[in-house]
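Posting this for the archive.
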Amino acid sequence: GGSWEKIGYSRTDTYTDLTAEAGTLYYYRIRAQVSKTYSAYSANASARWLAAPADVTATVTQEGIEVTWTLVEGATKYNVYRRTSGETWVKIGYSRTDSFVDSDVKNGTYYLYRIRAQVSKTVSLYSAEVSARWLETPTDVAARVVADGEIEVSWTLVDGATKYNVYRKRAGEEWNWEKIGYSRTDTYVDTTAESGVTYYYRILAQVSYTYSAFSAHSAGVKFIAAPADVTAKSAAGGIELTWTLSGGATKYNVYRQTAGGEWENVGFSRTGSFTDSTAAAGVAYSYRIQAQVGQLFSEYSAAVTAKWTATAALRPGRAVAQ
């Protein structure tokens, strides 16, 4: 319905219209000229110009390789092409949006992608090429306390991967993942975890500069450090014990043993000290402390030994410090 306008001229047999708007159908006709003499108009020809998709990316995900691009004005369909080294381009699918997930990928293989926009029978030029190498995502990620201050993280090995990067975050810190190390095997021991803190772990497989997607994170895990710096000495009311508090602990169970005897629980404390008022004078006792929060227990502390010297009688009704 528009009117004809002259948009330029050529001295050869071609002309490129650089003013065409994406998605618009244009009609063209040509008129030859020499001096002030003109030919009749040629028959009409029509064409619709589509811009090639831009900002194309290829990213490894758990589902495969996700290819994304910027939408082209006027386009209704985006054809996705793929090839590997030495092979020809093959159309592997299309999308009506700005992304496509290629799930038919092989572990460790490099893939190249390019996109072509389309509306009706009109297609754009191909986009710039992008590449990605797919690695499977590590699975079965688990974490468990294996020793005082040590959390072991494990996962299933990925074929072709040579390195596994280990990431950790604290409970309540939604996106604050930090890389804490790596492993060449299927396990990693975290020795930097803090007592009483719940941690989650996830794994990123790697070979050279190619990475997998992040694994699903492990279930939360935490440990309570064994009380440290335990001391025992004779005091007026019995044998007085002290120790350093363990992060996250709410209770400290006190165990006692005589030479050749069994360990027995003699009480607990909510602080960093306890007085064993049941100790017999002149008997050597060994003590160890176990921290606790809920149903989570630390390992036992190192044992210490003390003997009570009855320097003063225990007054009737004197309570054990807890």
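Residues 6 and 58 are 42 Å apart (CA to CA). The chain is about 0% helix and 50% strand.
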